[in-house]
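Hi there, hope your week has been kind to you so far. No rush at all, and the record is pasted right below.
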Amino acid sequence: MSRRLRAGSGARGVTGLRDRPGGPRGTGRVGLPLGIACLALLHVGPAATWLPSVRRLVPGLAGAGDPSHVALTFDDGPHPDSTPRFLDELGRLGCRATFFVLGELLERHQWLGRRIVAEGHELAVHGWRHGNALFAPPGRVTAEIGRAADLVTAVGGAPPVWYRPPYGVLSLEALVAARLRGLRPVLWTVWGRDWEAAATPASVLATVAAGLRGGATVLLHDSDHTSVPGCWRSALGALPALVDRCRLMGLSVGPLRDHGV
C-alpha cells in the first residue's frame, strides 16, 4: 500500500471521500433515478411487441402456426347484441374460432360463454376489463388476469390456455401473471381494423387479405364494447368472404388450439 493511500485511510480521509460529489453519497443520488429508469424499462419493454416489426422477431408470440392453417380469433366479447350473430355465421360456415373474452362481460353473460364452448369454440382470456396494462397500478393486472381465468374455467369447464392483453399491450407484470396462471400470451399476425368508424366489410377483408397466409392468426372483434358502436358489423360482414378466401388458398380455418403455435 502506498503512502498516499495510507494517508487517506484515516477518519479524515474517509469523511472527505463521503463528502465528495463523486463518492458514495453522490453515486446514490445518480443511482436512484437510474434504477427507476431500469425498472420502468423492464415494465414497458414487452409492449414493444405491439409493433409489427418486433412481432415478426417472436413468431410464437405473434401467433404464427401451422402453414396449412389460419387461426380465427375474436376480442372484446361476449356481448348479447353481437356475439350470437357471429356464432350463427360461424355455424353456417362450419368453422370454429377462439374468443378472447373480457371477464366483466362474461360475468354478465355466462350463458353466451357456455354457448361458445358448446358449439365447439375456444374461450381465452382478454383480461377483466379493457385497460392498458402499462398504466395499471401494481398488482391490478395480476389480480384481474387471475379473476378472468377463474371465471373462464368455471363457465367453460376447462382452464383457458391463451391470454391476449387489451390493445395487444404487454407489460412485465402481465407476462409474469399470465405464465404463473399457465396462460400462453399470443397476439396476432394480421388484423382487420374492424373497430374503426370508417370500417366496412370490404375494408376489413382487404386489410386482412394483405397479410393473409398460411400460419396466420387473424384478429377481429365480436363486440363494440370498447369501440365505435356497431363497428362489429364490418367484421361480421367480412367473415364469409374471409373464410372462403382461406379455403380457396387451401387453408383450413379454426381456433388456436388447432393452430400448432
Remarks:
- The chain has a mean pLDDT of 84.
